[in-house]
Design brief:
four-stranded antiparallel sheet, Arylsulfatase, C-terminal domain, Alkaline Phosphatase, subunit A, globular, 2 domains
């Protein structure tokens, strides 16, 4: 049995494409630090967000439960209830086990005191609770200040990737020097619009004008350098070997993202909207350079990270421990968008999807599709007409109570 991890680091990127990082792409964007992380750990090639948008997928990631079971199937707006405190989150599990806990970056699971990061077990928080803030002014698109430290709005100069990385480094340094176990959730706002790169404050501050593909590439490569700074700190403190590191996205990317051969993107249940990279490095429990192609989903983050630290959930979860539970091909993964007359107006009104083994069933509002993802990951060859009994079975599962 491997030794339990003394520290856990969860890194999440936003609005990026599957192929935007080297371990999963063609190297058009250079991410050597993330590449090295994957070489030292395990790549999960068939990993999914729980939803094609931020809030529901992040809620699922932190609780191990499907968005529909949490009552969070669209992004939480101000004045609406967020992630309820009776839903035990990763941060509370770790805090209750004696870990120091911190969130640097995006929350987006509530705007009030009773559904804030602090209400969910985070002892430290520097970040924001909206879908995004300006990379330089730290204001919302409407111009309101939105950077919080704890429960207070604060003014801090600097580029958000630097602010969150510097905060994470300070937290890791304090915990490492004191010999305190920690759970750190580092949730960057990169690469959300306006795709602002570093060193361009004059062009982007207080202006929500989207940058170019070149700006996007520069910001992603800087994001990789920032991850490298955190990983280097673990090495310098001598705690890398006892730290589990998981890196993923919450959902797929949009206009400027590299989709990695997948169709469509953000806001849809096609593969480009929900298939995301995942890397897990845990030197004592994961074989370096290994690859898993078993379908997995972001709810698995909760039981898997708890397992690295020798902890277990206090309730039944929808997610699985990827290091211990059976990873057989019969597992069925579900998604739905079900917003009749409400929700984000840019989302499709209704979509449902299901994956079991290599098969992907998709109902896109009007039409049924069936894809064999092992042969057709780009979802270009609908096989429903060849397998009428299978599509009927999967349609029933997608509409059922899951």
């Amino acid at each position: 049995m491997p030794q339990a991890a003394k520290n856990v680091l969860l890194i999440v990127f936003d609005y990026m494409g599957y192929g935007d990082i080297e371990p999963f792409g063609d190297g058009a964007i250079r991410t050597p630090n993330i590449k090295r992380l994957a070489e030292q750990g395990r790549r999960y090639t068939d990993f999914y967000g729980a939803a094609p948008i931020c809030g529901p997928s992040r809620a699922a990631m932190l609780t191990g439960r499907y968005p529909r079971h949490l009552g969070i199937e669209r992004n939480v707006e101000p004045g609406e209830p967020g992630l309820l405190v009776h839903e035990t989150s990763l941060s509370r599990y770790f805090r209750d086990a004696g870990f120091r806990t911190a969130l640097y970056g995006k929350w987006h699971l509530g705007h009030g005191e009773d559904d804030s990061p602090m209400a969910h077990g985070f002892e430290e928080f520097l970040g924001f609770d909206y879908w995004n803030i300006d990379y330089y002014s730290h204001r919302t698109r409407e111009g309101d200040p939105a950077l919080y430290e704890g429960s207070e709005i604060v003014e801090r100069p600097g580029y958000t990737t630097d602010l969150f990385t510097d905060g994470a480094l300070d937290f890791v340094g304090r915990c490492g020097e004191a010999g305190k176990p920690f759970f750190l959730y580092l949730a960057y706002n990169a690469m959300l619009p306006p795709y602002a790169p570093p060193g361009r404050e004059a062009d982007f501050a207080d202006r929500w004008v989207n940058g170019t593909r070149a700006d996007y590439v520069a910001a992603v490569e800087y994001l990789d350098q920032s991850v490298g700074r955190v990983l280097k700190a673990l090495d310098s403190l001598g705690i890398a070997e006892e730290t589990a590191v998981l890196l993923t996205y919450d959902h797929g990317g949009g206009e400027l993202a590299t989709k990695g051969g997948f169709f469509h993107g953000f806001g849809t249940l096609w593969e480009g909207g929900i298939r995301v990279p995942m890397v897990l490095r845990w030197p004592d429990g994961v074989e370096a350079g290994s690859v898993s192609a078993a379908p997995a989903i972001i709810m698995d983050v909760t039981p898997t990270l708890l397992a690295t630290a020798g902890l277990t959930a206090d309730r039944a979860l929808d997610g699985r421990n990827l290091l211990g539970d059976s990873q057989d091909g019969d597992r069925t993964l579900h998604w739905r968008i079900d917003l009749p007359g409400e929700g984000e107006d840019w989302l499709p009104r209704r979509q449902r999807a299901l994956r079991r083994g290599p098969w992907k069933y998709l109902w896109d509002g009007t039409f049924d599709f069936l894809f064999d993802l092992s042969a057709d990951p780009g979802e270009r060859n609908d096989l429903g007409y060849r397998h009428p009994e299978l599509i009927e079975e999967l349609r029933g599962l997608a509409k059922g109570d899951w």
